[in-house]
Amino acid sequence: MTSAVSAAIHWFEKLSLEDRSRFLALLAHELTIGQRVLYADGNVEGVRQLNEANHHIAGLLIDSCDGRHRS
């Protein structure tokens, strides 16, 4: 794992549950914009990959709203 990834994980884990939820919601929203761009370009595989990432982030958001932490 790179130091940048480790630093990002450390930053995220220090967030309050409310800030963690807000961050995840914003990230999920931004991913939908990326999916639209890829769809318009006909990049079906890119859309699929971002959809999978968005699905994972939505699960993390649900856990955060419920006060749980997923590794």
Write structural notes for this entry:
With 71 residues, the chain is mainly alpha-helical. The chain has one domain. The protein is 82% helix and 0% strand. The chain is built from 3 helices and no strands. The chain has helices at 3-14, 17-40, 44-65. Helix 2 (17-40) packs antiparallel against helix 3 (44-65). The longest helix is centred in the middle third of the chain and has 24 residues, at 17-40. The two termini are 15 Å apart. The relative contact order is 0.12. The mean pLDDT is 92.
What is the global morphology?
Answer: globular
The portion of residues forming beta strands comes to under 5%
Number of helices: 3
Query: What is the N-to-C succession of helices and strands?
Result: HHH
What would the average pLDDT be, to the nearest integer? 92
How many distinct folded domains?
Answer: 1
- Which assembly state applies to the chains in this document? single chain
Which structural class do you get from the secondary structure elements?
Answer: mainly alpha
Largest sheet features: none
Question: What distance separates the N and C termini?
Answer: 15 Å
- The Rg value, from CA coordinates, equals 14 Å
Low-confidence stretches: none
* Helical coverage, percent range: over 70%
Provide a compact summary of the structure.
The protein has 71 residues and is mostly helical.
Q: What's the SSE blueprint?
A:
Elements: H1 3-14, H2 17-40, H3 44-65
Helix pairs in contact: 2-3
Comma- or semicolon-separated keywords:
71 residues; 3 helices; globular
